[in-house]
């Protein structure tokens, strides 16, 4: 049964914990509207936020939010729960001489989606001049919400709470629309706000006397490119030829973004209009299951030609954001939220699920990395493998695997305790010290591999090396039927990608380095104690899925794309060549010292136009996320930008 809680403190913008601090707000009354706000101003950003509440507050209750920003701030966000994810967001921007207030909700670290649990009504005082713009709005639905664990949270209107802000400086894609895309923030902050001081007399009368009537205008029609992409880059060698790739798929619509393909490859869009599509699984009947972050799991019947013939929502659960797995017999479905993993009895023919059960609890609520990847071990169908990232760029505590972060763990489903395993204390380790191993996959020998998102904003002895270091990684974890207590380096040991950036020592690609060497922890310590990656990949590419083809001659990897590099990088599907090594093992063709192992398969034509989240991505770039091969050898890929898409790829 969902519980009910008062919300008094939170995690600011998903990346760091904030403590209850000294109240930073004060009462300010507006002469035009006669509304008195509990108001906070931030001198560094030039932002001011005012909140007004009814004198009598019983959940659900309305609120007035007033945002004033410098003219060079193209958008400003206000987080009602003090964090980016899992609370309502009021995102505002100027539109002509007026403004727009958009209700958003982020279920993961991605562009916040439209939120139908709240709505805004503009009030007088919404305006723009030569130096600042202001949006003043009534919000219905902003003061209470359902959290990731399905509990009801409501702001404590008679006390203090934590709020958070963010702003951007890149243009909003279509400022006339409240569903417009916008780019990643330029800065963020948080403060402690006195809500008791925000309660005012005559709230309803003041709203009525100040209400403005506005209607968002429609966006201009965009003519997209053709349904099928067949342009050429360069040869990447042969791979397993699967079934033919369809020339087009009825009802899929045209691609939102152009793409460039390796020689001999073909890509066709098979579906659009999805909500942040992430991981993919095919069931025993060949139906495709797709996690749509913040929505649930969709079920797609795939025809013999590779196109989708019908679609339905299989599981509607907005806490699901990435992970999905199926039991070996196809009768149990698994999926993950940020904090839990669940199971359902599954009937692939009827496209139905039974009653949900909890398999794992206790995964971290918040932090920088919110997705939990799931896999069932092919050689041991009773084993569920779960990858959990760190909760910050450098999460120092994860040098101890007992934290249950930056780690891959294995859980025996045949011994599932009542209520499920606790992630940190249950199961056993399949490797730790992996900063964010979002993509995990199996080779032909049922050995586990993974791709790691490495660190951001790096220095070496104070010198900035972050643009081209550290490298992302391909890791080999091996046999998950027995514990693997190897340490893979994080949070102290990282791999060199561009040796010329380091001036204090000569390095090769793939060498270990630490940011600030000391007598107790230095590059040599890493060599002695850490397990090296199999390969290093381009920094900030953000690999988030991997799949081997049938003969294991290639590992396909989605590069989700950078936010911490100029120019941007990633936003493409790549392939890394593998070969059979000693005793039939699978190993990369190129050595650890290579920085050319990943070959482009499907890429955006101009990656400099791409950005982590926002109009550049939404109007100019697709963003690869999940991968899966069907039984015919066709490779399916999700793109999780605002108009989420499904693609099928293969060699023509």
From TrEMBL:
The Cellobiose dehydrogenase-like cytochrome domain is annotated at: 29-204
Question: What InterPro entries does its record include?
Answer: 6-blade_b-propeller_TolB-like (IPR011042), Beta-prop_PDH (IPR054539), Cellobiose_DH-like_cyt (IPR015920), Quinoprot_gluc/sorb_DH_b-prop (IPR011041)
Any idea where the Pyrroloquinoline quinone-dependent pyranose dehydrogenase beta-propeller domain is? Answer: 261-651
What Gene3D superfamilies does UniProt report for this protein, alphabetically?
Answer: Cellobiose dehydrogenase, cytochrome domain, TolB, C-terminal domain
- Superkingdom to which the source organism belongs: Eukaryota
Q: What is this protein called?
A: Iron reductase domain protein
Gene source species: Karstenula rhodostoma CBS 690.94
């Amino acid at each position: 049964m969902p519980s009910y809680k008062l919300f008094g403190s939170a995690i600011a913008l998903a990346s760091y914990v904030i403590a209850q601090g000294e109240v930073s707000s004060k009462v300010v009354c507006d002469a035009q509207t006669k509304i008195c706000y509990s108001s906070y101003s931030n001198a560094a950003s030039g932002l001011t936020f005012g909140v007004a509440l009814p004198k009598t507050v019983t959940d659900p209750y309305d609120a007035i939010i007033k945002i004033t920003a410098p003219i060079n701030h193209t958008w400003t966000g206000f987080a009602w729960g003090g964090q980016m994810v899992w609370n309502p967001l009021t995102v505002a921007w100027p539109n002509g001489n007026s403004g727009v207030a958009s209700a958003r909700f982020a279920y993961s670290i991605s562009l916040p989606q439209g939120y139908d649990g709240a709505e805004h009504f503009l009030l007088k005082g919404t305006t723009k001049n030569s130096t600042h713009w202001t949006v003043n709005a009534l919000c219905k639905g902003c003061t209470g919400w359902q959290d990731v664990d399905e509990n009801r949270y409501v702001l404590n209107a008679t006390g203090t709470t934590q709020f958070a802000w963010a702003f951007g400086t890149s243009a909003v894609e279509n400022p006339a629309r409240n569903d417009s895309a916008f780019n990643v923030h330029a800065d963020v902050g948080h403060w402690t706000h006195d809500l008791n001081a925000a309660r005012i007399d005559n709230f309803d009368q003041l709203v009525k006397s100040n209400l403005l009537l506005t209607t968002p205008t429609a966006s201009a029609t965009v003519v997209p490119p053709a349904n099928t992409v067949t342009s050429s880059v360069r040869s990447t060698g042969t791979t397993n030829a699967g079934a033919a790739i369809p020339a087009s798929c009825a009802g899929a619509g045209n691609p939102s973004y152009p793409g460039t393909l390796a020689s001999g490859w073909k890509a066709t869009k098979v579906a659009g209009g999805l909500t942040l599509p992430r991981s993919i699984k095919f069931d025993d009947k060949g139906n495709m299951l797709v996690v749509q972050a913040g929505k649930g799991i969709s079920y797609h019947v795939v025809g013999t030609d590779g196109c989708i013939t019908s679609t339905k929502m299989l599981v509607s659960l907005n806490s699901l954001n990435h992970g999905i797995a199926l039991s070996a017999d196809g009768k149990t479905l698994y999926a993950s939220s940020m904090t839990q993993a669940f199971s359902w009895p599954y009937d692939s023919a009827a496209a139905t699920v039974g009653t949900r059960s909890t398999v794992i609890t206790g995964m971290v609520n918040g932090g920088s990395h919110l997705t939990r990847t799931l896999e069932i071990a092919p050689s041991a169908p009773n084993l569920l493998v779960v990858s959990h990232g760190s909760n910050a760029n450098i999460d120092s505590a994860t040098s101890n695997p007992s934290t249950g972060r930056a780690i891959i763990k294995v859980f025996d489903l045949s011994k599932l305790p009542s209520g499920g395993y606790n992630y940190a204390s249950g199961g056993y380790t399949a490797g730790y010290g992996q900063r964010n191993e979002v993509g995990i996959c199996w080779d032909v020998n049922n050995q586990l591999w993974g791709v790691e998102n490495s660190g951001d904003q790096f220095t070496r002895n104070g010198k900035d090396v972050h643009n081209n270091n550290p490298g992302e990684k391909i890791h080999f974890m091996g046999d998950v039927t027995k514990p693997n207590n190897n340490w893979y380096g994080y949070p102290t040991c990282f791999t060199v990608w561009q040796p010329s950036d380091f001036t204090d020592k000569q390095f090769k690609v793939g060498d270990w380095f630490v940011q600030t060497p000391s007598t107790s922890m230095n590059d040599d310590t890493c060599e002695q104690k850490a397990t090296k990656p199999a390969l290093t990949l381009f920094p900030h590419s953000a690999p988030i899925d991997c799949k081997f083809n049938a003969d294991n001659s290639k590992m396909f990897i989605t590069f989700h794309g950078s936010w911490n590099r100029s120019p941007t990088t990633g936003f493409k599907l790549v392939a890394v060549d593998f070969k059979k090594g000693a005793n039939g093992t699978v190993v990369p063709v190129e050595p650890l010292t290579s920085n050319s192992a990943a070959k482009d398969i499907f890429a955006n034509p101009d990656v400099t136009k791409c950005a982590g989240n926002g109009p550049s991505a939404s109007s100019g770039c697709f963003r690869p996320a999940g991968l899966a091969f069907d039984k015919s050898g066709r490779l399916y890929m999700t793109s999780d930008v605002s108009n989420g898409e499904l693609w099928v790829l293969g060699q023509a």
